Amino acid sequence: MPGKHATDHQVRRYMNSRKEGYSQAAAAARAGISERTGRRFEADPILPSQQDRTRRYRTRQDPFIEVWCEELVPMLRTIPHLRATTILDELQRRHPGRYPDRLLRSLQRRVAHWRATEGPERELIFRQEHPPGRQALSDFTNGGGLAVTIAGAPFPHLLYHFWLAFSGWQYVKAICGGESFTALTESLQEALWQLGGVPCEHRTDRLSAAYRNLSSQEDEAARYAEFCQHYGMEPTRNNAGVSMRTARSRPRMGISRAALAKRSSCAGRATSLTLPPTRPSSRSLSRARTRRGAPCSRLSSPPFCRCPGTGPQTSQPPPSR
After folding, report:
1. How many CB atoms lie within 10 A of CB 137?
2. Cα distance between the two ends of the chain
3. In a 3-state reduction of DSSP, which class is residue 263?
4. Average pLDDT, the chain
5. Reduced to 3 states, what is the DSSP secondary structure of residue 178?
6. 320, 196 in Cβ contact below 8 A?
7. Which of 52, 105, 123, 259 is 20–30 Å from 112 (CA)?
8. What are phi and psi of 291, to 5 degrees?
9. CA-wise closest residue to 276 among 254, 303, 302
10. Higher pLDDT, 143 or 68
11. Which is nearest to 135 in space by CA: 163, 171, 107?
12. What CA–CA distance (Å, rounded) separates 16 from 61?
């Protein structure tokens, strides 16, 4: 029928009729298509459902053809991440009444096509996979921004932060002092014993307390290497110039100022303050609960005693998981 596309059923019936000996006119009449359509399918026997019907032509004139090269492209080159809504607002300011709001979707497509073909190169990101029980991370954060005071005096301190990459389980400890070897190992040891297990890998940034930062391989400080060997962990570090303080690789600690102030107000002159394992946000907590069983089953059991020279020694078994 004129104005209608041939269906797969019509094409199959036409081709079967031709195999049975019918002429093109008779086969086309049996299939309900024109002779011209039948000849076209004989020359290219592809079913209509298998054909590429993507439209590669415009059905109406480009509404931005007059201002695209002179005004819009310079704006995008100056600010590549400029949103289409902002560009449309600017066009409406410069040319009142010419570019209504209904043209926003057309402008968004034009801007997306320009960014894909002529825009700046985008950063290539590979999604990381964290198997359960494999990797734990440690880092220090300056806690001066929390405005914690003891007896009215400011309390300068660092926050040691430990978390599991898969489940998001976290441990935080307040440190009076710098990023020393003692602060790292004592805090890490407390985190492992509260967790009740040991991951396969422990990652930090390029801490001078753990690495000498002289070479890319086998550069661990001797005492830190012995500590990791005692717990059966593989020490790893970030590449030079790469920090762990990103939203994707490090969860928010979620420590309230009131909780920290409550614990620090009665600490007196203590050299360290231990906070309970922190809870992530409600969304992260829900995800951690669903994954809680997986990492514990993959963690190794901690040694029977703590590492010598890193805090109080004990021969009691670690807490159960």
Report:
1. 22
2. 73
3. helix
4. 77
5. coil
6. yes
7. 52
8. -105, 5
9. 254
10. 68
11. 163
12. 44
Cβ-based neighbours of 192, under 8 Å, separated by 6 or more = 198, 231, 302
Count of other CB atoms within 10 angstroms of residue 6: 19
* Nearest CA-CA partner of 192 in 102, 300, 283, 103: 300
Any residues with CB less than 8 A from the CB of 225 and at least 6 apart, and which?
235
Q: Which of 131, 220, 194, 207 is nearest to 320 (CA)?
A: 194
Any idea of the CA torsion for 78, 81, 84, 88, to the nearest 10 degrees?
-30
Q: Contact, 236 vs 203, CB < 8 A?
A: yes
Query: At 236, which helix (H) or strand (E)?
Result: strand 234-237
- Identify the DSSP state of 118: T
A 10 A CB-CB count for 50 gives 7
Over residues 274-312, the pLDDT tens digits come to 444 444 444 444 444 445 444 455 787 777 677 766 655
Give the separation between CA 92 and CA 101, rounded to whole angstroms.
9
- Integer Cα distance of 3 and 15 in angstroms: 21
> b or e along 276-298 (b: 16 or more beta carbons within 10 Å of the residue's beta carbon)?
eebebeeebeeebeebeeebbee
What global pTM score does this model have? 0.48
